Amino acid sequence: MRHQFIKICLGLLIVLGLGACQKRIHFHYQKRVFKAGDNLAWADPKFNDSEWDANPVRIFSKSEGRFWVRFEITLPKLIQTIRHKGLQVVSLGSYEAYWDGILVHKNGVLGTDAQSEKPGRFISEVLLPDSLCQEGKHVLAMRLAKYQVPDKGSWVTFSLSDYMVPARDDLKTTAFMFLLGGAYLIIALYYLLLFINQRRDYPKLIFSVVCLLFFGLMMMEYLKFYYSYPYDFHYRRLWLIGLLTWCLAFFIPLFLCLHFELPRWYFWAAGQATVLIASTFFYVIGSDLGPQRMSEWMLIVSIAISLYAIYLKRKGGWVILIALLMVVWINYFLSYGFHYLRFNYDINLFIGFSFIVIAILYLLAQKTKEQRQAYQASLLRSARLQNELLKRHIQPHFIMNTLTSVMEWIEVSPRKSITFIEALAGEFEILNDIADEQLIFVNQEIDLCKKHLEVMSYRKEIQYLWEDEGIEPKEKLPPAVLHTIVENGITHNIPLPDGTFVFRLQFEASAKQKQYTLTTIARLKSTKTSDREGTGFKYIRSRLKESYGDAWQLESKPTQEGWETRIVIFKT
User: What is the 3-state secondary structure (H, E, C) of 157-170?
Assistant: First the structure.
C-alpha cells in the first residue's frame, strides 16, 4: 500500500506540473472600487467613480445589504483569439451584472430584505457576446445584495477567458485532488480496522483520524467546483475548513509524540491545544488567514518534535524532519519560486500534507515490520520454551532416578509402587497437555505441582505438603512457572527438624495488579547465594516476558520461614 500511495502522489505532482505549464489566455481587471447604497445610474460606464472606495472593508461596515462594485478592464487585440468569451464571477452576494451598461447576467434575486432575497451562487459563468468584447476599455458594474449575512464581509472578483475553460480546469484539478483524497480515505479505513484489532495501538487510530480529516478537508476545499452552492453557505464552508485544519494541527503533532514515545508527551499535547485555542481569539477559524496560521504553527511544532526525537535517538526522527523541511521548501518554492510552477495555497497545502502522510506511512510500515519480526521471534522463543519444558522433565537422569525409585518400591511395596507410577503418569499427562499452551488456568498449574510433590515424596521419602489460599480458578499463568519454583524449593532445601516440608501459595488481586506468593517452608541446604541465575528462573522470566511483555515483576528472597518467591502481574 505504501508504494502504491507514493506512485499516486508522484503521478499527481507530474500531472499538476504539466497542467500548470499549459498556457491559458485570461484577463483580469485593472481597477476595482466599491460604494454602499443603490443607484442604477452607477451602471453607466461613463459614470465618474473617482470618489468610490477601493477598500471593501470600510464599505461593508456601512452597507445595509446593498452595494455596488465597478471594475475597469482593458482588452488587448489578443481577445479576438478567444472563440467563446465568458466571465467567471466569484461573489459573496446576489447580483446583477452590467457590462458597459448592458445587463448581461442575474445571479439570484436581490430583494429588499432577507426574506425577499434569493441567494445567488458563489461561482457563476457568464457568456458574453462578441459585440461587447471588442479591443479597448470596458466597465463591469455589479449591483449586489447580501441580506442573508449583513454582518459578514464580502468578496467579488472575476476573470475573462474562454467560456468553458475555467470550469473545465477547475474540474480537472478537482478530479486529481479527489484521486488523492480517495487514497487518504482508503488509508484511514485500513488503519481504523487495524486499530479495532489492536485496541491499544493508539497511534494507528490517530493516523486514521488524520487521514479522515484530510479527506474531509479536501472535500470541503473543492466543494465549490462540483456543487454550485448559494453564497451564504460559503461562510459555513469556510468555518468547516478552519475546524478541520484546527484538528489536523492538533492531531499530527500528537501522533508524532505518541509514535516517538516522547517523555511527558501530554505536556506537548496540552501546549499545542492551548496555543490553537488561543489562536482562535486572534484569527477567525472561518477566515483564510486562520487555517494558514494554524498550518504554519503545526509545522513549527512538528519540526521541534522531530528534532527532539532525533536527540532521543528515536527511529524515524530524521524521516519526519526531512519530510517537514520538504513541506516548508515546497510551500516557499511553489508560492514564490518559478512562475510556471506557482500554485495557490490550497494545492501547496495538500501537496505538503502528502509528504507528511507518506513519511508517517513509512514510520508505520517500519513499526509493522518490527512487530512482525518480534512476533516471529516470539514464536521461536515459545517453541524453544516448550522444548526446554519437556527436556527439563524428560532428561535422562530424571528418568533414571525415577525408574530406580520405582524398582525399589516394587521390591519393598508393590502396592505403593503402583500409586507411585500412577502419580508419575499423571504428572507427564498434565505436562503433555500444557506444553503447547501460552497460558493455562491456575488450577491446572496447582494440579501439576501436587502431582510432582507426590512423585518426589516417593523418590525422596519425604512428606511434601501443599497449601493454597485466595486462589481464583479463572486466573491464568504461563505453564510450569509455579512448578519450576517448586522444583527449585525441593532442590535447594531440606525438611525442618520436625520433618515438615510445606509449599504455601497465596493469591492477592487489586485494581492495578495480581500477585502470586509461593513460600517454601523448609531449611536452606546452604546459606551462600550466587549471582548467577539458574535455568529455572531464566525459564520463568522468559515465560512471563512472552505473555505479559514488561508488565510483570519477579522477586525471590529468603524469609524467616524459608524462601519466598513473588510474581506480580500488572494490569494494563
Answer: EEEEEECCHHHHHH
Grid cell of 421 as nine digits:
507410577
- 119: DSSP letter: P
Residue 114 and residue 108 in contact, taking contact as beta carbons nearer than 8 Å: no
Which residues are CB-neighbours of 95 under 8 A, at least 6 positions away?
Answer: 89, 106, 107, 108, 110, 120, 142, 143, 144, 145, 156
Instruction: Answer positive or negative: Cα dihedral of 307, 310, 315, 321.
Output: positive
Kindly list the domain boundaries of the chain, sorted by start residue.
26-163, 174-372, 394-570
Per-residue pLDDT of the chain (572 residues; tens, 9 = 90+): 445 445 545 554 544 444 444 456 778 889 999 988 889 999 999 999 888 988 776 666 555 678 899 999 999 988 888 888 889 999 988 999 999 999 999 999 998 888 899 999 999 999 999 888 888 999 999 999 988 887 777 788 898 988 888 878 888 888 888 888 888 899 899 888 888 887 778 888 998 999 999 899 888 888 888 888 898 888 888 889 888 988 888 998 998 888 888 888 888 888 888 888 887 777 666 676 777 788 888 888 888 888 988 998 888 888 888 888 888 887 766 554 443 333 455 666 677 777 888 888 888 888 778 777 777 776 666 656 665 655 555 455 455 556 666 666 666 666 666 777 777 777 777 777 777 788 889 998 898 888 888 888 877 788 889 999 999 988 999 888 898 898 888 888 889 888 889 999 999 998 889 999 999 999 888 766 555 666 778 888 888 887 888 889 999 888 888 889 999 999 87
CATH architecture of 394-570: 2-Layer Sandwich (3.30)
> 26-163 falls under which CATH superfamily?
Galactose-binding domain-like (2.60.120.260)
Give the architecture (CATH level 2) of 174-372: Up-down Bundle (1.20)
Model confidence pTM above 0.70: no
